[in-house]
Amino acid sequence: MSSVPATAAVPLWMVAELTYRCPLHCPFCSNPVDFAKIKSELSTAEWCRIFAEARALGAVQLGLTGGEPLSRPDLEELVAEAHRLGFYTNLITSGVGLNEPRMRALKDAGLDHVQLSFQDSTRELNDFLSSTRTFALKRRVATLIKDHGFPMVMNCVIHRLNIDHVDRIIDLALEIGAEYLELANTQFYGWADLNRSQLLPTREQLERSEAVVAGYRQRIGNRLRILYVISDLYETRPKRCMNGWGTTFMVIAPDGLVMPCHAARMLPGINLPSARAASLREIWLDSPAFNRFRGDQWMPEPCRSCPEKAKDLGGCRCQAFLLTGDVGATDPVCDKSPLHARVLEIVNGPRPLRPEIERPLVFRTPENSEQLLASMTES
Amino acid sequence: MDNPGPLSRASYPRIARLYRFQWEAAQNAYVLLFPEGMVQLNVAAGEILRRCDGKRSAADIITELRAAFQSDAIDGDVEAFLRSATQDGWVEWRDTVTP
């Protein structure tokens, strides 16, 4: 067995995708589009073993997500075990299924924080995007979360259809008493990539929304901390991939696949290890998948000789693959990339006034996933 | 809630509700944990925050730290740290002991 050198990176953050089942059908979901083929979820005992192995490696933040983690009837048991091991436990939820008894049981189990998603500040758009009637329910769940004394993060994924509501989304976060608001511009992987032409905001929208956020920050100070995560398609330098591939994050898929980021499952030629077949320690330290993009030996030009390579580490591997077809390419968001024109083509291309009407959104449903799977196997 | 504000030596600082404070062996450090984030603390910050339990007054903490660091010249540093930790929202204050 390898030993961890004093300087080795520690997977401080572990994301446990407990299930791909979800009552919501958001068209910007980062789950893989072929999730319908994954039938075998990890058992309670398997998750508990994985938590213990991750904790021994030094993981301390645990995100419990999915899909909808409340779809797992053993969620309370998993939280209790994670809490016992010393994790800070974050429940990342749509709120569907979070009633008073479960809220109390989660509190008793030692849950530390709840992140509640909204899809918009209006009932109409919230319910349209999730294809559910959940806006009123989410408001009730927010009250429940506060009544039980949890710190609350409100999360809203931002895109072309709701970015002009950013002011009202911030008002909603203030109204429900959230301590943090995460305005996460859609990252175009998974379902979001399928719907990119309908969801990518225009440059004008993005600039307006940034001004709105800056104005609120000045006015409201520390009462609500707003994290505004910009999609980097409009930038000229890429972002680090998950703070660096295999440096900080480890994502466990519902079937036990261990991934350096949420979207890595679609990358070709990366043989993702399974937590069912190996220990997390072996996977983190020795697996070819986790070592593939560590350091700078893998980098092509122009990254390899770039003075900024230590800053962005070549950018996002999934974005590089989706936009160039080559998982080892320089992230084309970088204007030094020979393929940067592909990004410009996307952001400067023709932008219909109502893109979601010209081309209907593909919602994240098991039926759509089955259909996409069938078309993938045909081609 | 009574929160008399920082740095009355007679009042009692404690870790704020939003934060969890714990020792992390893998990092060989005390850390502050909060929703989706973490601050790794240096030795001095860890020794101060470890004592912010709502049962020790600021004066008690300073007395203990003088002994621990064998120095009478730490008061200013401890107060400066508590002031910034309060501004960051890590620490809240009470007039009375937290039961």
Question: Could you walk me through the main structural features you see in this protein, from its secondary elements to its overall organization?
Answer:
The complex is a heterodimer of chains A (379) and B (99). By secondary structure, chain A is of the alpha/beta class. Chain A is built from 16 helices and 9 strands. Chain A has a 9-stranded mixed β-sheet, covered by helices on one side. In chain A, strand 2, helix 2 and strand 3 form a beta-alpha-beta unit. In chain A, helix 1 runs parallel beside helix 2. Chain A starts with 12 loop residues before the first strand and ends with a helix. The N terminus of chain A is likely disordered. The radius of gyration of chain B is 13 Å and the shape is globular. The mean pLDDT of chain B is 90. Chain B has a 3-stranded antiparallel β-sheet, covered by helices on one side. Chain B has a two-stranded antiparallel ribbon with strand order 1-5. The chains are: A alpha/beta (379), B alpha+beta (99).
List key phrases describing it.
A: alpha/beta, 9 strands, disordered N terminus, B: alpha+beta, three-stranded antiparallel β-sheet, two-stranded antiparallel ribbon, globular
| General form of chain A | globular
State the end-to-end distance of chain B.
15 Å
Discrete helix count of chain A: 16
User: Could you say which structural class the secondary elements and strand pairing of chain A correspond to?
Assistant: alpha/beta
* Strand elements of chain B, count: 5
Order of helices and strands of chain A: EHEHEHEHHEHEHHHEEEHHHHHHH
Task: Classify the oligomer.
Answer: heterodimer
Strand content of chain A: 5-15%
Tertiary shape of chain B: globular
Query: How many beta-strand runs of chain A?
Result: 9
Cα end-to-end separation of chain A: 43 Å
- Spatial strand arrangement across the major sheet of chain B: 2-3-4
Largest interface: A-B, 19 and 15 residues
CA-atom Rg of chain B in angstroms: 13 Å
Radius of gyration of chain A: 20 Å
Report helical residue fraction of chain B.
25-40%
Helix content range of chain A: 25-40%
Work out the helix count of chain B: 3
Report the sheet with the most strands of chain A, covering strand number, pairing sense and barrel closure: 9 strands, mixed
Low-confidence stretches of chain A: 1-7
Mean pLDDT of chain B: 90
